[in-house]
Structure formats: C-alpha cells, structure tokens
Write a structure and sequence with these properties.
The complex is a heterodimer of chains A (426) and B (318).
Chain A lengths: L1 E5 L2 E4 L4 E4 L2 E4 L2 E5 L10 E4 L4 E4 L1 E3 L15 H10 L2 E6 L10 H14 L3 E7 L12 H6 L4 E3 L8 H14 L2 E4 L12 E2 L2 H6 L3 E2 L1 H18 L2 E4 L5 H12 L4 E6 H5 L21 H12 L5 E3 L7 H4 L16 H12 L3 H6 L3 H7 L14 E11 L18 E11 L2 E5 L3
Helix pairs in contact in A: 4-6, 6-7, 7-9
Chain B lengths: L22 H20 L12 E6 L5 H12 L3 E6 L3 H4 L4 H10 L4 E6 L4 H8 L5 E7 L5 H15 L6 E5 L6 H12 L4 E5 L15 E3 L2 H4 L5 E4 L5 H4 L6 H8 L3 H4 L7 E3 L12 H4 L6 H21 L3
Parallel strand pairs in B: 1-2, 1-3, 3-4, 5-6, 5-8, 6-7, 8-9
Helix pairs in contact in B: 1-6, 1-13, 2-13, 6-7, 6-13
The chains are: A alpha/beta (426), B alpha/beta (318).
Chain lengths: 426, 318
Amino acid sequence: MNIHIKNGRLIDPANNIDAMLDVFITNKLIIATGEMPESFIADRIIDAQGLIVCPGLIDLAARLREPGYEYMATLESEMLAAVAGGITSLACPPDTDPPLDEPGLVEMLKHRARNLNLAHLYPVAALTSGLKGLELTEMSELVDAGCVAFSQADAPLIDTRVLFRAMQYAATFGFSVWLRPQDSFLSRDGVAHDGEVATRCGLPAIPVSAETIALATMLTLARDTGVKLHVCRLSSAAGVELIRTAKREGLAVSCDVTSNHVHLSEMDIGYFDPNCRLTPPLRSLRDRAALRAGLLDGTIDAICSNHAPVDEDAKQLPFAEAESGATGLELLLPLLLKWASQEKMSLSDALARVTQRPAKILGLDAGHLSVGAAADICVFDPETYWRVEPVALKSQGKNTPFTGMEVQGKVRYTLVDGKVVYQNQD
Amino acid sequence: MNNPQLNKDGELQHLLTTEGLPVRILRDILDRAANFLDLDEGREIKKVPLLHGKSVFNIFFENSTRTRTTFEIAAKRLSADVVNLNIGSSSTSKGETLLDTVDNLCAMHADMFVVRHSQSGAAHLIARHVAPEIHVINAGDGRHAHPTQALLDMFTIRHYKKEFHNLRVALVGDVMHSRVARSQIHALTTLGVPEVRVIGPKTLLPTMVENLGVQVYHDMAKGLKDVDVVLMLRLQNERMQGAALPSGQEYFKNYGLTEEKLSFARPDAIVMHPGPMNRGIEIDSRVADGVQSVILSQVTFGIAVRMAVMSTLAGSKA
C-alpha cells in the first residue's frame, strides 16, 4: 500500500522542518518526504491542501478505564477518541481495577489494543503491587510484557523507604518511574486549591505544599538513586521552580502538565462546576502563569490530556462528591493550538510538546517524520473552528470544562503504521 | 457568569448564598421581615395567604431542629402546605442520588425546596437542576453558605443598631468550617458595614480570608476592641481530633467569650450566636444569658426573616 500525502505543510519539530513537503508512505513506513521517489505509484492520494501534516500526537496520560471501569469507558471508545484527536500513541496509567500490576494484565491490554488497530498503547505499570505502596511489582516481568514505565497513578506512596527502594530497583535496570507529587496527609479530603475560591466556596482544600513536599522528597531520592524520574501533572508555581532548579543541577528529570492546567485556574470552578473537579486541583492564576512560563522555557517538557472519562451520574453530585476527571483526548490538539496562539509561538515549537518530547520521555522512536520512521501521522486543518459539544465527542466521557467553547484546529486524517485509521471531511 | 440566584428580570429566583446578592434585595427582605414581625406582635393575624396552595418541601440531608422548625413555622404562617423530609444519610445508603430524590419530589409538585446538605454546593446543584418555576432555599450547605441565618443576623443587628454604615463587627471562632460565617461576612460587607473582623487561631481561619473583605485578628483583646457587634461561631468537637485545637479548655481560655473579654467591646455591644451553643467552650454562660446577649431574639426574628424570603421567592416570576 502506497500513500502520497500531497500539498500539505509538513511540520516535524524533531527534524526542524516546517515546509511545503509531500510525504510518501509504503506499507508501514515513511519512505520519502519532498520529491516523489522513482517508481512510486500511489494507491491513495491524500490532498492536504491548506492542512498541516505533523507527527501523530503522543499523550502521556490517558485513562481508558479497562479493565474494571467499563461503565465509564471502553478501550474501543477511547482509542477511537484518541485517533479522532490525532493521537497515535498513548500511555495509560495503572489505576484500573485490578491495577496493572501483573504481566498478564499488561499483555492482555496490549493485545486488545493491537486487535483494535487504532493507536499504539503503552501501559504504565504499577510501581507497587495493588498500588498499595508496600511491595514492589515484578518490574522486569512487566517490562517484558510491554509496559514502558512504573507509576503509582494517583495512589499514595506514604512509606518513603518503599519509594527509595522502588527507585533503586528501577534504576538498577534503567526503568523509568513516573510519579505525581502529592503529600497524602496535606491533601487528605481536599478537593480544591487552598486559595481564594476554596475559601469562598467552603471547599476542603489542598495546599501547594502538598505538591512541593512530595516533589522535594522524590527529587531527593531520584538524586540519590539515579533513577529516571518523570514528574506527572505539575500544578503549582513552586513546583515549577523546584523542577527548574533540579534540571539546572543536571538531574535527569522530566515533567508534564495537563491541557486543563495550561488554560484554567481555580476561578473556573465558579459556582461549583463539577467539570472543574480535577486532579491535581486547578490552582491560582499565578500558578497557571508559572506553568505556562515553565512550558515556554522547557522546564516542563510535555503537555498531556490527562484524559479521564467519567460517567455522567458521577459528575451530577455536589462538587466534593463528584468524580474527579475530564475527557481530554479530542481536545489535546485544539488546546495546544490555543496555547500556541496566545503565546505567539511557532506551531513547530508547540507541536514538539505533544510529539518529540513525550516520545523522548517514553523512550520511543516515534514523534518524528524521518525517512524510515513508522508512518504515525496527524493531518489537521489549523483554521477550522468548532464548538465543543459533548454529544459530538467520540469519547464515552462527555464532561469537560471546555463545553460550549469555540476551539481551533480539526483533525482530518490520522495514520497509524501507514494506515488511515481516522478521517473527517466535515 | 450569570448569578444563579436571580432570574432574567433581576428578581430573586433562589436563595443560595448572600454572596453577590444585590443590596436592594437584601434590604427588601429585611423590610419585609419587619412587616411580618409587626403583624406577629400585633397578634391579630397569625396567618397570611401569600403561599396559599403552594407546597414547600423541607429536605434535610443533615440533622437540624431549630432551622427546620423555623422554616416549617414560617411556611405555615404563609399558608403553604409543608412536607418535612429528614433524609439524613439513609436515602443515599439506599443508592438514591441527591438529584433522584429531588426529581421524585418535583413529581409531587413541589413549588419550593428548603435544602440542607453536608456538602458545599449542594443547593447550587439542585437549583441548576430543577424546572424554572421551582425555587430553592439553601438552609445550609457544607461549609459554604447559610443565607437565611445570615439574614436573620442582619435583621437582628439592624433591630438593635438601626444602621450598618457606622458599625464595627467581629466574628469569633471557627470561620474555616463555618457556613454561617461566610454568609455573615458577605451580607455585612454588602450592607455597607465598614469594618468586619475575624478573630481566631490560624488553624480555624481559611487561607486568604482577608480577600472576603475582613481584617484578621488572633487576639481577643485587640480584635474585640470597640466593636459594636460580636458574632460568636459554633465550635464543633471534631476540631480537636483534626489537630486544629488542643482542647476545649484551651480554646475557651483564648477565644471563649467571657465578661472580661467582652469588656473590650463597646459598652452597648450586642452578642449573637447562631446556636446551638457550647457553653464553657466558645461562650461563658454569664455572657450568653447576660444583658448584652440577643441570642433568643435571633431565633424569634428567624421566623419573620424566613417568611420574608419565602414570600419574596413566591412573588418572583419564573
């Protein structure tokens, strides 16, 4: 199968390319960009006139809810949502039921994902068995089964000796540890940032120190153990500053932020909007500004969707009782473009935060359009505006703080391994 | 963001919080309550037909005697049909959600809900959910708001002090967990009280409380100096378990209102408490039962104020 994507503007941040170049695909691979190779006969031509052709997006945090929470979403519904959002690779956290703490579960998930033939799935396995924070999982076995890193998702790891040992053990084999910094005592019962809005609304609060204390602990232990640490979903200005300092010292640490936190703050909670019940909590405007500055200067490496589909009933509750989370796969690209245009940054620099850089964090040869690379490609129209309507989303999760908002950028084609897995000409 | 309490004509559709209420509506409610009170003291007409044929549902997901009773009396004096539902936690343990319960009651043709719930934002959730002709009164949601309590407190202050613009008011105690305190602060600042103080230990004052328009004090002698009104807040026993306070005795030593501490306030200062009181913890009996205490007037005025709120809501167009 030969595919010719013609007349498009090719943006490939990893190769520093932003030019009008055609792409030629044979079977699974990109065999040329620019000039048509001799003897290439296209079986299919995709006209990308007025469109941007870029590496498929890579999402570092997407909950697919399988196994265990199929009433919220299924692998199939969420993988469809991913490719509709131009995402060709995604990492899923281990907080399923049961948690991803056994090789069999990881294999099953990978197998089911492969059979769907949509996006590539990279499970992040549990760091401790049952995510209980007591005993290590069989990390080597889990890596052999196909997991790419180890994490506690949002489950606490209170015992710092277990954390220390887990990092030591992972470092022995060069495995990555992904952690979200949150002290479980300071965050106990909390549902909103400890600031003006929580005070006004009378909501149990989570102080910034819950993030910085946990972050300081994990950075200290990462320094001592030499483990590859990825910090998930930073939320505060003080957190950004700790990462900036650690990176300046040369520590091998990376981190991400969610699209929601790039655009929203505690103010968006308004009158208890359960769509803004998110983990970590939306923080102050000053924190949001620091997160954006951290993204610009490279302190924060990547933007993730933190996709967490929730069933409608679980959101129709008083704020503190409502399930945390929002749908995000189909909004990752539009929210990235919105951020890029607000910050007046080049599309190539913006796209690097959802392609090249997350690929590096995952240790994948992906997120670029080099000759010989797998043809994981997103073709999108940067000029089309659309309104976020819950019913129109492919994801089974319909809740998002961006409901009703006008966003920019519509995915037209998504290719995974040289195969068109999504197209939309509307 | 639209104010969820007002309809498109700017009339009061629901009473959910005192925050963001236009001062004209606040004053209207207080004036209306004054009329009911005259009527009450005259003892000629106990009942008025303003809510005749209307059904008021008191749905209390949290226990309450005083508030529920005063709402019931108020609704009955307005000639409404009143249904009391003490749901406690039993219905949620049967698996029914808050909004399912509300839908069922709507199907019984409720015109007005009076809601108390342990979670902040519960009344807003219900108000967003019900049909536009149904009114919701928040009778206390979590730590967020208790607007009718604040309104009756404002009524009491106006009754004794006549004006708001020349007052110094101090709130004493657990502001952090208090829906009453939040509603009082918004009402006081809206009505033009120039100086509102909060007094308490740092563990009981929420972050950035000064952004609500109050001055923060940790010392009773300084905080009560020259105030006209002292609003005491209830201290829940749970606070001792959450490491917010060492003991009731120590709290009383620092923040309990005694005659000695009250002497820092103006000689004609009034003392109020939303009840139920913990004597010997937040307030000394000699003060609670003393000449400056207007605590029982608060309860009496509560009926008139709740009548005023209900009749205001019933008078607004859907």
